[in-house]
Amino acid sequence: MASPSSICLLAVLLALVSWQAIASDPSPLQDFCVADKHSPVLVNGFACLDPKYVNADHFFKAAMLDTPRKTNKVGSNVTLINVMQIPGLNTLGISIARIDYAPLGENPPHTHPRATEILTVLEGTLYVGFVTSNPNNTLFSKVLNKGDVFVFPEGLIHFQFNPNPHQPAVALAALSSQNPGAITIANAVFGSKPPISDDILAKAFQVEKGTIDWLQAQEKMASQSSFFLLVALLALVSWKAIASDPSPLQDFCVADEHSPVLVNGFTCLNPKDVNADHFFKAAMLDTPRKTNKVGSNVTLINVMQIPGLNTLGISMARIDYAPLGQNPPHTHPRATEILTVLEGTLYVGFVTSNPNNTLFSKELNKGDVFVFPEGLIHFQFNPNPHQPAVAIAALSSQNPGAITIANAVFGSKPPISDKILAKAFQVEKGTIDWLQAQFWENNHY
């Protein structure tokens, strides 16, 4: 039996493990490419189902993300909703997960080879962190409370731990890939099938073969007693990744919002000036918002609020809906959206492009998940006249943009000519003039 000191030494010596990953979801070239999982054709992702067989259910799952899950012996349970559960996610570059943590439970050190993760705490408290790659291997860690948001850059080793010995915790995470993958470090190194030679591992970690044999015999490597040592000392595992929006070429490129240099996104802050707060926001996403006259309020957490999101291709939003309120028809020019209902009921839908302009719509209940493909006009409406509703949405861009159709067409500055709009909509100019005179309120804050 290996001693605790041997295990700690082994954690230190994980420095010598090297990993590489190449990742990028394929760019969508049409409104959607619903996964045809029965096709004999093999492609990156899945071949497309014939559009004439597609319906709203291909973008929906009654995922019950409001329901607590039983945790495993390390004290966590990750319920991932990816392209395997929602075939409409194929080519759209995003997925979502609910993570349950038992008291003192952990989601042990792991990586997502194809995705950045953005996480918000729904219940409880979490101690979280990630480790940069060689040669610095810096740990960025933070304690998160309910409503806080934190970002884990693509490919880097990261973890979450519930420090409360009495209460469970729950988080909702979005990931910038339709199929992000997950590699739990201890399982991969010591639990591979067939196992990596104990001669190789003993030499790599500079320990006795007996220690390696004992570790390989374990079903899971992360324990509550050694958790913090493992987190700190798994630091030296190296990862490389390629992604999108735009592609990261290093561990992170925290936005330097004061740089005079203009690029796509933002230039990078000097890494020596970066700390965990650049990946964090006390966003209060657990707090209800006041809605506007259309009955909604979108609280977007993007690169402008969390500079660490720069180049990482994902963002998050809380959406509040008043009774009979709506998030009116709009598009995100740079992002697919995946949404889950936290409270209430929503009627949602999107419309495909010309020439078909087909409406795919669905009524969602608490815990359900729905996908709105990138660039398509979509909406959400709370049909309940008495109760508000709340949703959390993730978007596959650090800065997805939002174009509310009515605002853009009738509220542009300067206005579009009423002659042009009257002809386009086949109505009298007076109707256009009246519409342009309205105050088109923004619901994105």
UniProtKB/TrEMBL annotation:
Belongs to the germin family. Keywords: Apoplast, Disulfide bond, Manganese, Metal-binding, Secreted, Signal. Residues 63-213, 283-433 form the Cupin type-1 domain. InterPro entries: Cupin_1, Germin, Germin_Mn-BS, RmlC-like_jellyroll, RmlC_Cupin_sf. The keyword Metal-binding applies. Residues 1-23 form the signal peptide. Transmembrane segments: none annotated. It comes from Oryza meridionalis. Disulfide bonds join C253-C268. Mn(2+) binds at H330, H332, E337, H378. It is found in: Secreted, Extracellular space, Apoplast. GO terms for molecular function: manganese ion binding. GO terms for cellular component: apoplast. Coiled coil: none annotated. The keyword Disulfide bond applies. It comes from the Eukaryota. The lineage of its organism: Eukaryota, Viridiplantae, Streptophyta, Embryophyta, Tracheophyta. This is Cupin type-1 domain-containing protein.
